[in-house]
């Protein structure tokens, strides 16, 4: 009897933690948006009827999409070069990617506060070169948020993709070139399709990470560039509009889970080695 | 894979890596600037911003809280996560296949939603102490590392070694500690390091779970930045980066940094 129950006894503590502190509380947050006194869809109508909140949602989608595209391109180039480097140079490049990744989001966003600030290096350089006469304000713009977010996610992309690219067998590439494929054709017809599943997984991580981020939009976007994360915090802790905050939370959960489910399925279908 | 590299690609990649590292050196420069505002390149040289950290008691107390939460939260996650990872691998046929997905949920649900929901349903509705909810929230946040990273180690473990020990009369629990655990130690170390760093750096979950008198270092840094724009935060950041370097040295010594690309 005890023997038959052993597997369950071992998984129960961890499952209970997830059930009691994640499934039930998050479930309660989602349910609260349908149990409003003004009718079940009222919180969502309120959200989408508010021009301000719609702007926040579209801004979040836009910033996340731009961040994802730039991070994928930069991450792919860097990972492609990492995969071809001899041992020593490769370790240096990996260290250069891992170090920012292990440094916290607050510190990394803060770095961009110094870079883009009134007394920051970009303003100092532009002033010294005589391009501008007065320091320009680059903080609290959409560009500042995107720059810091790309900085946040490129290391993640590099590490994800260099693992994927390392895994591509050398024989396949040699076969393609020896059969007469030009370097670009090898890239487009062999490397890219083989890397596609990893690319999609990385892109999903970047998109959902950007979509739900708080610290970066808070520090570099402020009130002017409010995004879903900062809107959720503002609704909950500044205006104490808990139904409004729960609605923002529900939209975040739905978007995140929908994207993860659709894209991982797509990644599986696109895997040429699985077919 | 190895093909010939176009110089333009190498140059672009070098630039990307330079831009990844440069901002962190800029923080170092800003931390020693003898100005009352954040600036780079630094003007003059001073260490007073470093001594200033220790004069602000909030940094000291929140750093201690962060270390406690990261240590205890990671320990708790490993304590319940390792048995779960073991069961999921060892008894794969006897457990339902959806069970493994339960432990992906903390990654799937946005952290900020988790923090907000814990505040609403646990801290306020159940009235649990702030420190306890913060600790449990962090344990939940890092649980996937314990289950998945240790699970990856267990997936390549040959369970027939364990059966051999048991059939030779070794009690199951002793077998786990003397036969299984030594063979998955790399996974346990990796899970510990990733979980610890994640917990130390977390903002989104802690944001809602800190209360009067109890806060974590990243939240304290955010709060300080909203009031002051002096180099104190730069010097705190430098100390945190020193901690990161220490962690990387441990990773390199125990597992090798390349394990992070797998």
From TrEMBL, chain A:
It comes from the Bacteria. PROSITE patterns: ABC_TM1. It is found in: Cell membrane. GO terms for cellular component: plasma membrane. GO terms for biological process: transmembrane transport. It is a multi-pass membrane protein. InterPro entries: MetI-like (IPR000515), MetI-like_sf (IPR035906). The chain crosses the membrane at residues 65-83, 92-115, 121-140, 145-165, 194-215, 236-263. SUPFAM superfamilies: MetI-like (SSF161098). Keywords: Cell membrane, Membrane, Transmembrane, Transmembrane helix, Transport. CDD domains: TM_PBP2. Residues 57-263 form the ABC transmembrane type-1 domain. Belongs to the binding-protein-dependent transport system permease family. CysTW subfamily. This is ABC transporter permease.
């Amino acid at each position: 009897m005890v023997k038959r129950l052993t597997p369950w006894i071992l998984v129960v503590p961890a499952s209970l933690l997830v059930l009691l502190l994640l499934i039930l509380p998050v479930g309660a947050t989602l349910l609260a948006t349908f149990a409003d006194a003004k009718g079940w869809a009222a919180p969502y109508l309120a959200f989408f009827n508010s021009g301000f909140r719609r702007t926040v949602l579209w801004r979040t989608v836009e910033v996340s999409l731009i961040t994802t595209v730039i991070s994928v391109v930069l991450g792919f180039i860097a990972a492609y070069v990492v995969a071809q480097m001899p041992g020593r140079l490769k370790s240096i490049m990996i260290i250069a990617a891992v170090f920012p990744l292990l440094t916290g989001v607050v510190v990394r966003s803060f770095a961009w506060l110094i870079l883009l600030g009134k007394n920051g290096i970009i303003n100092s350089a532009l002033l010294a070169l005589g391009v501008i006469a007065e320091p320009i304000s680059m903080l609290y713009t959409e560009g500042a948020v995107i720059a810091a977010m790309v900085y946040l996610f490129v290391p993640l992309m590099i590490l994800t993709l260099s693992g994927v690219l390392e895994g591509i067998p050398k024989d396949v590439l040699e076969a393609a070139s020896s059969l007469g494929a030009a370097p670009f054709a090898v890239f487009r017809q062999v490397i890219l399709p083989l890397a596609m599943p990893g690319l999609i997984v990385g892109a999903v991580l970047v998109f959902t990470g950007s979509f739900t981020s708080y610290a970066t939009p808070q520090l570099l976007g402020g009130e002017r560039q409010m995004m879903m994360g900062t809107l959720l915090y503002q609704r909950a802790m500044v205006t104490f509009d808990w139904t409004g905050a729960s609605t923002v939370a529900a939209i975040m959960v739905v978007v995140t889970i929908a994207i993860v489910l659709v894209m991982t399925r797509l990644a599986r279908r696109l895997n040429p080695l699985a077919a | 894979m190895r093909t010939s590299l176009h110089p333009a690609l190498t140059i672009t990649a070098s630039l990307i890596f330079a831009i990844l590292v440069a901002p962190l050196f800029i923080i170092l420069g800003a931390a020693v600037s003898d100005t009352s505002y954040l600036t780079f390149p630094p003007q003059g040289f001073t260490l007073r911003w470093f001594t200033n950290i220790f004069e602000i008691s909030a940094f000291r107390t929140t750093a201690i809280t962060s270390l406690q939460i990261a240590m205890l939260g990671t320990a708790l996650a490993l304590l319940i996560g390792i048995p779960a990872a073991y069961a999921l691998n060892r008894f794969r046929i006897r457990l339902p296949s959806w069970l493994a997905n339960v432990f992906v949920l903390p990654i799937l649900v946005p952290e900020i939603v988790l923090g907000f929901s814990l505040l609403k349903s646990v801290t306020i509705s159940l009235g649990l102490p702030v420190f306890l909810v913060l600790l449990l929230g962090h344990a939940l946040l890092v649980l996937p590392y314990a289950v998945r990273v240790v699970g990856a180690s267990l997936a390549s473990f040959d369970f027939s070694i364990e059966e051999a020990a048991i059939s030779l009369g070794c009690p199951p629990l002793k077998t786990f500690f003397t036969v299984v655990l030594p063979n998955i130690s790399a996974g346990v170390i990796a899970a510990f390091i990733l979980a610890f760093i994640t917990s130390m750096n977390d903002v989104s979950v802690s944001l809602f779970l800190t209360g009067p008198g109890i806060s974590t270092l990243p939240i304290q840094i955010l709060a300080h930045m909203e009031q002051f724009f002096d180099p104190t935060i730069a010097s705190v950041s430098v100390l945190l980066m020193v901690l990161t370097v220490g962690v990387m040295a441990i990773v390199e010594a125990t597992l090798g940094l390349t394990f992070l690309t797998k």
